Amino acid sequence: MGFSIVTYLKHEDDFWCKMGKFFAYRKYAKEMGGWQFYTKDKSVWFVSFLDGEIIGFNAIIHEKTHSYFDNFYVLPEFRGKGLSTPLFNMRLNYAISLKREIRVITDNPIQIKRYTDNNFIHYGMRGKYHKFKLYANKNSISQQHQ
Fold first, then answer.
1. pTM above 0.85?
2. Domain range for 139
3. Each residue of 28-68: pLDDT tens digit?
4. What span, in angstroms and rounded, lies between the C-alpha atoms of 117 and 18?
């Protein structure tokens, strides 16, 4: 089977069967510093699988004026192996294709570097969280994403 990423546009097919435990089990919220995973009707999810099992995921949540990156997660045993990069790139390329402003907030040092390296602008803090945004257009795609 190998590695694959599935895009869920409207929570269709087997989304809840596959993702339900991440929303329901408190151990995942605890690992995320108390933040519970959530979704909205207009969310797009990117879920990575290895041999049919979920190893990570992230989402784009569409708001009225912008799109928001949220819910980035990789199972602990798969971190540091480069498997989050294709997941990040797939979400970024999808978001850029929408030509909307992209916003994200994070306190994760790895993600902070990743957003900075991908032309996101640091525009403030919210407590310990760094706020980034990217004005998505054809000029914001770096060579590594094409």
1. yes
2. 3-145
3. 888 887 778 888 888 999 999 999 999 999 999 999 999 99
4. 32
Q: 133-136 contacts: CB < 8 A, separation 24 or more?
A: 133/66, 133/101, 133/102, 133/103, 133/104, 134/95, 134/96, 134/101, 134/102, 135/101, 136/95, 136/96, 136/97, 136/98, 136/99, 136/100, 136/101, 136/102
Label residue 57 exposed, middle or buried (CB < 10 Å: 0-12, 13-18, 19+): buried
CATH code at position 83: 3.40.630.30
What's phi and psi for 14, nearest 5 deg? -105, 25
Q: How many domains does the chain have?
A: 1
Residue type, 25: Y
Residue 86 has pLDDT above 90, yes or no: yes
- Beta strands 44-50; 3-8: pairing state: antiparallel
